[in-house]
Please model this.
Amino acid sequence: MAVRVQEADFDLAAEMAALRGGRTDIGAMVSFTGLVRGASKAGAIDEMTLEHYPGMTEKALEAIEAEAQARWNLQACLIIHRYGRLTPGEQIVLVITASPHRGDAFAAAEFLMDYLKSRAPFWKCEGSGAGAQWVDARETDEEALERWHIEG
Amino acid sequence: MDILYFAWVRERIGTPRETVSTEAATVADLVEELRGREERYAVAFSDLSAIRVAVDQELAELDAPLAGAREVAFFPPMTGG
Model:
């Protein structure tokens, strides 16, 4: 179980292999990769800068990872979240879950993403020719949390 | 006590971090105190529904007590992922 907050990019295949290691008891691995889109409602984006709260970010991600472990039968879990200046097409976030069967791996991966979108202290700022704009939190993100019965 | 600001709260207040001496009993009391200091604080804290708070790196409500707290952070709703 691990959490990494970093500026550097990550390699999905390498992370999957490292997490699996030499184990033969894992039956399912699910991964989610979040990417920077080249456009928002306001138009084209040249870059996205992610700010975070060092210290609290790691604690928040570790807390939700622990919550996922308590809810599902996870054999391994990894969260990588980048910060700093990113450009469209770049990877932002990676979640990998491993379990004996796919149901737990799928559910835990979705739970981890829903949670970290609005409970881990990251803020996105989109930059374009028109200037820089902080991204608004979406109500749909809060709604996504409600189905896991997490209160605001 | 250290006070941290992030994202547009940081931009409106003009600093990422400052140390203040305060007798504020709760987060809400601290906000009132800051609002009275200078216009930039009043602007940043004009709509508290758009502000989230952490006390010692744990999410907290406006009525959270500050006794013993070392670090308070103010920021907009989070937009990670």
